[in-house]
Amino acid sequence: MKKSKTSFFCQHCGYMSPKWLGKCPSCNGWNCFAEELVSEPDSGGRAHMSFDGKPLPIEEISADEGERMLTGIAEIDRVLGGGIVSGSAILIGGEPGIGKSTLMLQVMKNIASGGSKVLYVSGEESAHQIKLRSNRIDAAAKDLLVLVEVSLEKILDHVKKIDPAIVVIDSIQTMYSGDLLSAPGSVGQVREASSRLILSAKKNGIPVFLIGHVTKDGSIAGPKVLEHMVDTVLYFEGDAGHAYRIIRSIKNRFGPTNEIGVFEMQDKGLREVPNPSSFFLAERPQNAPGSVVVSSLEGTRPILVEIQALVSQSNLGMPRRTAIGVDHNRVSLLVAVLDRICGLHLGGSDIFINVAGGVRVEEPAVDLGVVAAMASSFLDRPVDPKTVIVGEVGLTGEVRAVSQMETRVKEASRLGFNRCILPKTNMVSLNRTAKMEISAISSLKDLLENLF
Ligand code: TYD
Ligand code: MG
Prior knowledge:
Structural class: alpha/beta
CATH topology of the largest domain: Rossmann fold
CATH superfamily of the largest domain: P-loop containing nucleotide triphosphate hydrolases
Number of helices: 10
Bound molecules: thymidine-5'-diphosphate, magnesium ion
Oligomer: single chain
CATH class of the largest domain: Alpha Beta
């Protein structure tokens, strides 16, 4: 009898170790190793995994990417770089309950209404539950086929028979291959199932969407394990307390990365938000100290968001510093710069920074806005509500240029803002318009003079 062997796998990144480890040497995660059975490499066991390719001169290979399939949901098409490329593998990651299944069902319904046969494979819900959901979001279409199955081999058989235009696997963590001994959801199974599905997608030119759950405790293998295998990685993010959802491309072999699409979860499914800036600014208080609007670029698209700061005298020996939606380390840096360069002594104050609406803004172009919000709250003087602030701040208090200023200013102007405070070095490439007053600054000292 063949002896079965076990190894320990990091459930975040797939690192393998012969013994249990508390900390993963590869991704530095704690307590994320699980024991899994590994099957002995059987002779010829992977023989079915092949592209059957032969070497070709590169000049003879066609570069035609073919026509992209449109989903009919503009936000998704843009995030994908203009539709779905044939034979591509797309991973959609997100926390449970964020709306991945709902979104994919809506996408499938749109494609099926165009007359193409699509296959939605679910290993999580029964056909009845999927039907109930589809009633809720009005997703009935003749060519939308639903398959409830977890066996990888059977799914591949069905795909071969049906030859659909597109396949959705909901979720990859429930899929199970009989070739492996380990349990569904383990790193081994998730990898095996994905690589077989991706191979089949590439061979037959059928695009495949893999839905992957992200859990904080790492109890099931996360989509990180698959990021390098697929062509496109989309993350669906959002806050349980807010109705909006953002889909963001982290990797895209066929389009831009960091592009975002914005949706709102309603009682009839996800609705596109074509104008996110006005959505995020809807509840902004006027003339309140500590509230500043910045223009942040997400992929190719500018979005205006409100940054709020609350600076208050601390009763603690070690003042609290909390940043939600912006990088914590950058905030600490900016506090130090404000203190040293501008003489605003924030050392003994609790500082809370929040990006309204629960969005995350990662780029350094929001530095100047964070500084302005903190200064405004500290001095208890409001910033003019029709002013947008953009710029990166350096350690000596200099204000540095940011990319694509033209686009950012245009978005501000479109939403009725009439003044922009921005880095002087950005002025070279900026076309001035009559409607927008521009204050160009080169240091934080200039900022405080221009603000109040
Ligand atoms: P779901 O797509 O099942 O999430 P996931 O597949 O990512 O786990 O979304 C479930 C959540 O969305 C659930 O909390 C209910 C909510 N929802 C709505 O608010 N409106 C709707 O029309 C639907 C279908 C779901
Ligand atoms: Mg789901």
